[in-house]
Amino acid sequence: MLNIIKADLYRIFKGKTIYVSFGVVLLFMVLVVYPVGMLGYSFLNYVHPIAAEFNGYHSAPLLQMNGNLFTIVIMPFITIVACPIFFHKTVKNEVSWGLSRTKLYVSRVILIGIISAIAYLLYLATGMVLATILGGFGGQATTSYVINILLVALVQILMLTAAGSLGALLYFVVKKKWLFNEYYVGITFLPSIIVSILVGLLDFDLLWLANIDLTLSMGRLGYFGFEARYAIPALILTVIWLSITLFLGLSRFHKAEVK
Q1: Regions of the chain with pLDDT less than 70
Q2: Backbone angles phi, psi at 171, to 5 degrees
Q3: What Rg, from alpha-carbon coordinates, does the chain have?
Q4: pTM reported for the whole predicted model
Q5: What angle do CA 154, 209, 200 make, to 5 degrees?
Q6: Residue 135: φ, ψ to 5°
Q7: Residue 256: how many CB atoms within 10 A of its CB?
Q8: How far apart are CA 258 and CA 69, in angstroms?
Q9: Any long-range contacts for 46-50 (C-beta under 8 Å, 24+ apart)?
Q10: Would you state the pLDDT for residue 34?
């Protein structure tokens, strides 16, 4: 399986599509950071009350809180980049070379996780650099500060991998990019929008839904930082999503007639 992943990484980074995807990541980062830097403290204090001013030091929670939008904005690109065999119908060729279907499918999900990690770290690092350029660093990078950022990043990357596992399942089932995008965005985006509307308009306390919704859970973890009461439910939810989507994906992949 390792050789499959290495070969795919070589293929992906030799092409142009991955760099277009990373360009989308950087654009997304700018849209998260730059408006806050221009609007200043009052807006940032509304978005994240712990921040006293806008700078590189306080940009980490802002970036990680919005990291949940990765599941909606970035993951469809990453899934399409990692799973071209589902779209171009070359699965039969891969299987005929002696590759087991299980290894072939699981390698897609691992590949999505690797690319997600690279894209996420690019987003976080460049976002903090841009915020530092706009407002200075404004703090001390203590050990606890760095560890908290890295732990949140690790959990969120695992959650992105779970979201990517859902993407791989949908992409194999529908085999059409436009239809895949509609299904994927609908599943990952609509629950968050509905909850946001209900919380904002009706003042409902629906944050408990972050225990069952991956996108909401990622946002909550980024907002509050690495605390056990938020990190543990996020990890449990990740394991559940991965288990269900891998089971369904492998079942469908083994039963499907490859062409």
Answers
A1: 35-53, 85-98, 178-179, 192-193, 195-207, 257-259
A2: -65, -40
A3: 19
A4: 0.85
A5: 110
A6: -135, 10
A7: 12
A8: 33
A9: 48/223
A10: 72
- Residue 80 has phi, psi (to 5 degrees) of -65, -40
Q: Which of 235, 236, 254, 234 is nearest to 246 (CA)?
A: 254
How many Å apart are CA 259 and CA 257, to the nearest integer? Answer: 6
* The pair of three-digit structure tokens given for residue 227, joined into one six-digit string: 């605390």
Identify the H or E element spanning 255: helix 228-255
Burial class of residue 257 in the structure, from the number of CB atoms within 10 Å of its CB (0-12 exposed, 13-18 middle, 19+ buried): exposed
Amino acid letter, residue 110: I
**How many angstroms from the chain centroid is the CA of residue 194?**
20
How many residues can be counted in the chain? 259
Could you tell me the CA-to-CA distances from 40 to 13, 43, 150, 239, 240 in Å, in that order?
38, 6, 26, 38, 39
Q: Give the per-residue SS3 of 203-219.
A: CCCCHHHHHCCHHHHHH
Q: Round to whole Å and give the CA distance between 156 and 96.
A: 36
The token duo for 116 is: 């997600």
Q: How distant, in Å, are the alpha carbons of 86, 175, 183, 185 from that of 178?
A: 14, 9, 9, 11
CB of 249 within 8 A of CB of 105?
yes
Q: Please tell me the predicted confidence (pLDDT) of residue 200.
A: 60
In angstroms, rounded to a whole number, what is the distance separating the alpha carbons of residues 2 and 176? 28
